[in-house]
Target: Nif-specific regulatory protein
Amino acid sequence: MGSQQGQARSVHVRILDASPADATRAATVCAKLSADCADPVLYSDPKACLDALADQPTDVLILDLETIGGDEALARYAVRCPRAVIIAVSARGSVSRAVNAMRAGAHDFLTKPFSLDALGDKVQAQLGMRRKPRPAPMAEGGPADARTLQTGTTEAFGRFVGMSPAMVSVYDQIRRMAPSGAPVFITGESGTGKELCAQAVHDLSDRRGGRFVTLNCAAIPRDLMESEIFGHVRGAFTGAVDTRAGAAEQADGGTLFLDEIGEMEIALQSKLLRFLQTGTFQRLGDSSDRTVDARIICATNRDPTAEVAAGRFREDLFYRLHVLPVHLPPLRERRDDIMPLARAFLARFAAQEGRSFKGFDADAQARLLAYSWPGNVRQLENTIRQIVVMNDGPAITLDMLPMLIRDGGGRARAAADDTRDRHRMARQSRPFATIEPLWAQERRIIEDALDAFDGNIAMAAAALEISPSTIYRKRQSWSERLQ
Ligand SMILES: Nc1ncnc2c1ncn2[C@@H]1O[C@H](COP(=O)(O)OP(=O)(O)OP(=O)(O)O)[C@@H](O)[C@H]1O
Model:
């Protein structure tokens, strides 16, 4: 069909449509392609098509949305052929359907019955535009995002914003890791997007129909951690008033994301290891083994090899988990991403808060670019939100920036030095008995920082130059001390 001599390479076309008549109509369009076109392969069975996409070349994929089970299912196909032109067709065409299909990874959309010319023109146009691979599709809270399509000016990958070389490499790794069932080990400073990364791996995997269950090992008191992961039976401990499934069971068929895994205590690490080795576990207080099929993704903002060397993390567990490692670089090492992120947050929060902000003036932009962002993307996100709530546009100006950022941290440091000097002076005249214990001083300092950032732990941690998990841990130790 439509073969033309002298073309460099065949164009591989696959068409999935439960209606043989419609599939054949779509196939005839290939005759119109100017490129050499291998005979299109027609499928009526979604599984056969998915299998072929996994290991055979595909340049054009025409998918009938009714056959694949709706626009949400489209991402599973898009993931398997990230370089193919995908045209979604549907007898139930509507604007929202078209938008959803594009979000899920389609390049274009046609309502049935379509004219052969219309389909031919769309395929032709898309093939012409396809000069370089586009990132795999994902969406806000789900698969695929229209912003990642073939515009050539993309600044985003799914819910991620930023196309710095370091992040493009991360997106590539996510795309490759997603279809595997192996554990993913995410490292990176607080606020660099580790949870976003875990969610992206889940969304692009075959497990996306299952649940994505997150457990933050730093935020849960240590004595409750085991029951949070593995569940408990009624009466297993004081307060266990009923039987409850844990996160592992909830993630059956899906993904279990263990955030801040470095905070898990050694005894529980052994139980997690057993679970990884055998797929079985017991609810707390129960003696029967249970089996689940959950993919494990974990994240830490610590250096895992240093934790192993220090004996705080079991080496055998580390090697079980550290199968597919991915590192998220801090924002200060990918400054190209700062303004695209800032603009994306500004657009989102201005719309949410009903403000007329349109952009940043040159001075504000220069400061944002120069600042070191110790709290990474989360700190940038919270900063823009705070500015939008407290001011109005059209432009974010230098005076709207928090002092910490306006002065590059210099004046804030000077204020800290000044406080320290004043304390030193006061100390000389204080009797011994009035000296505040270290833990109480620490508590005051941390609570002051939390107040300054409206209780936002990540921002307070960034300003104090400690990790958020330190704040969680300290809080737990204060409450134990005061009990
Ligand atoms: N590249 C990005 N594009 C858009 N938003 C991002 C990006 N990276 C992070 N964010 C946003 O920043 C915030 C922090 O991200 P996330 O929770 O994934 O970080 P984290 O590394 O898991 O942090 P922590 O270690 O403190 O748990 C979230 O609101 C997330 O949506």
